């Protein structure tokens, strides 16, 4: 059977680190509150001359190098992002040009924090259908440009990063075993960016009201996120006739430590099965899962044959899981 298998991972975070102590200087907040409520100590922030496509390209180069795949051998590039360089064209097209991936189609997927898993699932479908052989899948975000740095309820949570994987068609027992995607658009205003699409255009009032920044009802998001991530993880296990004991590593979207712990507990995972790096990077939306995968992979925590479960929840709402044999 032809399976989609991850053969390389890569990631990139901007150099600048913004700690909770740095935030104390400009906001009515403190390190203790942020750590206790979110588990976050610091996050990386893109330089003024860095764009989302730059972060994505760097992560991609590292993934291609690990996979031993040349850019011109790629047939598809899919980028999960909600903070692309432009409303259009797709950031994936800029990455395609940066890499010289002259034989690849390229497009973006907009599914907020679930964007990478939605993008990965698209790659899996193309590969299993025999239509693609080598696909580059990226999650990349510069959230620091769309948060309101005067709103302590939201700005403390987010950071900038990119992660990438090379997915190849292989006749193998290893690879991606299932993907599950879900959405519910009825509560979109609990987590969204009101401007500037076609519904709300830039004008004096919308600019004054900072409508271009992220808005969130944190408490409500928290509850739905935990429930949905637990549900979609259980759906993945059931579809593969597996139980929590079969999973070697659970890599959830790194929103904040309380969501991670509550989700893992609800599913029944032990602490040592769960990958956590939110303390060092904050919530980097579509980038959290590929960033965590790359870290785990390079640290030797992903061994051949391991069962790995990825799980995400984000604006939309969207949520998704991907289960694989490494
Ligand atoms: N520093 C100090 N105090 C703060 C801060 C801050 N940065 N932010 C809020 N507070 C205050 C509030 O004003 C409030 O004060 P009050 O009681 O005087 O009104 C108090 O702290 C408690 O506020 P709550 O919002 O109830 O705090 P809560 O414990 O819910 O934590 C948080 C807020 C961390 C946002 C939480 O709701 C959460 O984790 N939500 C999930 C949202 C999330 O992670 N979204 C990411 C995007 S979605 C995703 O990726 C899945």
Question: What do you see in this structure?
Answer:
The structure is a single chain. The chain has 326 residues and is of the alpha/beta class. The protein folds into two domains: 2-173, Peroxisomal Thiolase, Chain A, domain 1; 177-325, Peroxisomal Thiolase, Chain A, domain 1 (3-Layer(aba) Sandwich), CATH 3.40.47.10. Helices cover 32% and strands 25% of the residues. The chain has helices at 20-24, 31-38, 52-67, 91-99, 115-128, 204-208, 218-239, 257-267, 278-281, 288-298, and strands at 2-12, 16-19, 42-45, 76-80, 105-109, 134-142, 160-171, 175-183, 191-192, 215-216, 249-252, 307-314, 318-325. β4, α4 (91-99) and β5 (105-109) form a beta-alpha-beta unit. It is globular. The structure holds acetyl coenzyme *A (ACO). Residues 29, 33-34, 37-38, 113, 152-153, 156-157, 191, 216, 218-219, 221-222, 225, 253, 255-256, 258-259, 283, 313-314 line the site of acetyl coenzyme *A.
Strands, total number: 13
Low-confidence stretches: none
Gross morphology is globular
The percent range for strand residues is 25-35%
Widest beta sheet: strand line-up: 1-7-6-4-5
Number of helices: 10
Average pLDDT figure: 98
Count of distinct structural domains: 2
Percent helix, as a range, is 25-40%
Characterize the biggest β-sheet.
5 strands, mixed
Distance between the termini: 16 Å
Order of helices and strands: EEHHEHEHEHEEEEHEHEHHHEE
The CATH topology of the largest domain is given as Peroxisomal Thiolase, Chain A, domain 1
Radius of gyration: 19 Å
Structural class: alpha/beta
Please identify which CATH superfamily of the largest domain we are dealing with: Thiolase/Chalcone synthase
* The CATH C-level class name of the largest domain: Alpha Beta
Which ligands accompany this protein? acetyl coenzyme *A
Please name the CATH architecture of the largest domain: 3-Layer(aba) Sandwich
């Amino acid at each position: 059977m032809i399976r989609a298998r991850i053969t390389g991972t890569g990631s990139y975070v901007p150099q600048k680190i913004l700690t909770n102590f740095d935030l104390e200087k400009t906001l009515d907040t403190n390190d203790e509150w942020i750590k206790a409520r979110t588990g976050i100590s610091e996050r990386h922030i893109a330089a003024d001359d860095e764009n989302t496509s730059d972060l994505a390209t760097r992560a991609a180069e590292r993934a291609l190098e690990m996979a031993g795949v040349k850019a011109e051998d790629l047939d598809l590039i899919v980028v999960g992002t909600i903070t692309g360089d432009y409303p259009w064209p797709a950031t994936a097209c800029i990455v395609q040009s940066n890499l010289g991936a002259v034989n690849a189609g390229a497009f973006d997927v907009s599914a907020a924090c679930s964007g990478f898993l939605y993008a990965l699932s698209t790659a899996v479908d193309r590969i299993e259908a025999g239509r693609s052989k080598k696909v580059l899948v990226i999650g990349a975000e510069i959230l620091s440009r769309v948060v309101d740095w005067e709103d302590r309820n939201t700005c403390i949570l987010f950071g900038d990063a990119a992660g990438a994987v090379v997915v190849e068609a292989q006749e193998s027992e290893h690879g991606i075993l299932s993907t599950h995607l879900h959405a519910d658009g009825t509560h979109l205003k609990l987590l969204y960016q009101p401007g500037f699409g076609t519904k709300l255009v830039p004008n004096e009032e919308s600019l004054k009201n900072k409508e271009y920044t992220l808005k969130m009802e944190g408490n409500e998001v928290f509850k739905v996120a935990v429930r949905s991530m637990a549900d979609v993880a259980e759906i993945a296990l059931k579809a593969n006739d597996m139980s929590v004991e079969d999973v070697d590593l659970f890599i959830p979207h790194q929103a904040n430590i309380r969501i991670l712990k509550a989700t893992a507990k609800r599913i029944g995972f032990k602490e040592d099965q769960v990958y956590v790096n939110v303390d060092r990077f904050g919530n980097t939306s579509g980038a959290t899962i590929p960033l965590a995968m790359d870290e785990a992979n390079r640290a030797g925590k992903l061994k051949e044959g391991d069962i790995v479960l990825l799980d995400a929840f984000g604006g939309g709402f969207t949520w998704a899981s991907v289960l694989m044999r490494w």
